[in-house]
Design goal:
Blueprint lengths: L16 H8 L22 H15 L9 E3 L21 E6 L4 E6 L12 H11 L5 E3 L2 H4 L13 E3 H9 L4 H12 L2 H14 L28 H12 L2 H7 L3 E4 L8 E4 L11 E9 L3 E10 L2 E10 L2 H13 L18 E3 L6 E4 L4 E4 H9 L2 H4 L7 E4 L2 E5 L4 E5 L5 E3 L2 H5 L18 E4 L4 E4 H9 L3 H4 L7 E3 L2 E6 L2 E5 L9 E3 L2 H8 L43
Parallel strand pairs: 1-14
Antiparallel strand pairs: 2-3, 2-10, 4-5, 6-7, 8-9, 9-10, 11-12, 12-13, 14-15, 15-16, 16-17, 18-19, 20-21, 21-22, 22-23
Helix pairs in contact: 3-5, 3-6, 3-8, 5-6, 6-7
């Protein structure tokens, strides 16, 4: 969702957000109604103030399992405690870890110390030892074992001689098993001896949940894994931090395409990076993916944005682009939409976890989630088509608990348990004259007159109104359809309908982003200014001596005369 003056909304007709955005651009300007207060843009704040406010929030609300609470008190209302109080994402991977590489603070941990198969992320250690050996211009002769290993390779042939530097590109870009063997044999004389060096290096680095049995991470077993070849998410972050400190390694893993030129002693090898994250996530500059049927999808990623440096690890994730984006967005405090290169990746996608009363519906496009009675109301009253996406977590204001959505604000009376939308439609009407009742008209198949409010709904406005719950969802109509600039609109107690004239859908109606407008007016949607999450509670910074800190806390699992 755009954080400046334009807003996306999701039309009932399920049109793309881009179409809705173009239609609603003029409607989302808070200056368009004389009854509204002018928009007061909040001034940017300094990073120190932001972090101080986060500390105040923690003191006001307490801690809940090492994550920000789902509710905040009205006394603490600010962008920090509402629109930018992002919930830790529900990471789907079996294990995950996120590190602020500048400060050494852990920002997210999930099963971070569980040893798991890590597939080709193994090659980070292979590269580390190769670079430390310092013989980058050596010509390495390719053995039969290297040339015939198979699976992912850079295409080496037995007998050719390739420089150690070019082998590193072949190791890290296409994830070449052949390059790994060639490196191992040249550095240590044999794979067995090289693996011993890998394990010695792991022990020296304090990687207590890591053990290697090969320099490439693949085994000749049904699932492609050796039970004795494993690492934890935390250990892989530590290893990644070490190798990213090597300029050559960092340069290689940020490269998307590289050609080993043919010479008298080697063939040409065209190498392309298989690290998909660097092709679409802003600021991602490496470092290593991996996969076997047993390990599943594994990913180590390094990213730098807004002057901050993050390293993230995911092990055995069923959805790489969702997990990687959610974890990095959380780390950077920025949920501006970033679509991946995968066709199934859509802005409206959600992640549903839990069951029964503990269900949690998370929106990667906003970094917020819906739970409990708010989720039940959301699911029964049109969901994203009517309410849009959540823009905050639940906010407690006296006896009310409120949650802001793109198009509406839901309020729960905590004494009675009654959930209702706020009358934002009434507040958005451009002039009192729009509220004057009209002459009663008989109901027909295309028109309904509501005596309670003195207004009618006709044709497609009527069809869409009734389809998504009628008065229970939108309240009663409080105006007739009328032209506002180039837009045909109609107001209801709790909503504003906008006709999409170019749409051929059954419901060519979009909802005005009234909930989001309200956040702008309150100064709770500031200009883009990312806020970093606080460290995981009780977790010692990276580099602290083992045992110096308490145990880690895991993250949660247009104006024609004809009116239609």
């Amino acid at each position: 969702l755009d954080r400046e003056h334009e807003a996306y909304s999701f039309p009932i007709s399920r049109l793309t957000a881009g179409v809705a955005h173009r239609t609603l651009a003029s409607m989302s300007n808070p200056h368009r109604h004389s009854v509204r207060d002018p928009l007061q843009r909040p001034a940017p704040w300094a990073g120190v103030a932001a972090r101080s406010a986060l500390l105040v929030l923690l003191l006001l609300t307490g801690l809940n399992g090492g994550v920000l609470p789902a509710r905040v008190r009205a006394a603490a209302l600010s962008p920090l405690t509402t629109t930018q109080a992002f919930a830790p994402p529900p990471i789907l991977a079996s294990a995950a870890a996120l590190l602020d590489a500048d400060t050494g603070q852990w920002l997210y941990l999930k099963n971070a110390d569980q040893p798991l198969p890590m597939a080709s992320t193994t090659k980070m250690m292979t590269a580390l030892l190769a670079i430390r050996a310092g013989r980058l211009d050596d010509l390495v002769r390719v053995s039969h074992a290297a040339a015939t290993i198979g699976e992912s390779t850079m295409g080496l042939h037995e007998g050719e001689r390739v420089s150690m530097r070019d082998l590193l590109y072949g190791l890290l870009l296409p994830s070449g098993n052949d390059a790994a063997i060639a490196i191992a044999e040249h550095v240590a004389g044999s794979q067995t001896a090289f693996v011993a060096l890998m394990n010695a290096a792991a022990q020296a680095m304090g990687l207590s949940e890591t053990h290697f049995t090969s320099p490439y991470g693949f085994a000749d077993t049904p699932d492609g894994d050796d039970p004795a070849h494993y690492a934890s998410a935390r250990d892989l972050v530590v290893l990644a931090r070490a190798v990213m400190a090597l300029p050559l390694f960092a340069r290689i893993v940020s490269t998307k395409h590289y050609v080993v030129r043919a010479t008298r002693h080697n063939r040409e090898h065209v190498l392309d990076s298989v690290d998909t994250i660097i092709y679409w996530y802003p600021g991602a500059d490496g470092i290593k993916p991996g996969w076997t049927s047993g390990a599943g999808i594994c990913q180590v990623v390094d990213a730098r944005r807004f002057g901050h440096h993050l390293i993230a690890v995911l092990l055995h994730t069923p959805n790489l682009f969702t997990d990687a984006r959610d974890l990095l967005n959380y780390g950077f405090g920025d949920f501006a939409w970033k679509r991946s290169i995968f066709p199934a990746d859509q802005k409206s996608n959600t992640v549903l976890t839990g069951s029964g009363d503990r269900q949690n519906l998370y929106f990667p496009a906003t970094g917020h989630s819906i739970q409990g009675p708010f989720l039940r109301y959301y699911q029964r009253h049109g969901g994203i088509n009517v309410l849009g996406m959540p823009r905050t977590q639940v906010i407690e204001t006296g006896g009310l608990a409120e949650q802001y959505f793109t198009n509406q604000v839901l309020a729960l009376n905590q004494a009675t348990g009654r959930m209702s939308p706020l009358p934002l439609g009434e507040q958005a009407v451009p002039s009192p004259s729009w509220l004057l009742p009209v002459k009663p008209a008989g109901n027909t198949s295309w028109r309904t007159y509501f005596a309670r409010s003195g207004h009618t709904i006709t044709y497609r406005f009527r069809a869409c109104y009734l389809r998504y719950g009628g008065p229970a969802t939108f309240g009663y109509p409080i105006s007739e359809k009328s032209w506002l600039g180039k837009n045909l609109v109609q107001y209801f107690a709790d909503a504003e309908f906008i006709w999409l004239p170019q749409s051929t859908a059954d419901c060519p109606i979009a909802m005005a982003p009234l909930g989001q407008d309200r956040l702008y007016q309150a100064g709770l949607l500031p200009p883009l200014s990312p806020l970093l999450p606080r460290p995981v509670t009780g977790e010692a910074p990276l580099g602290t001596a083992p045992g110096a800190g308490p145990p880690a806390v895991d993250g949660p699992a247009p104006a024609p005369t004809h009116v239609p």
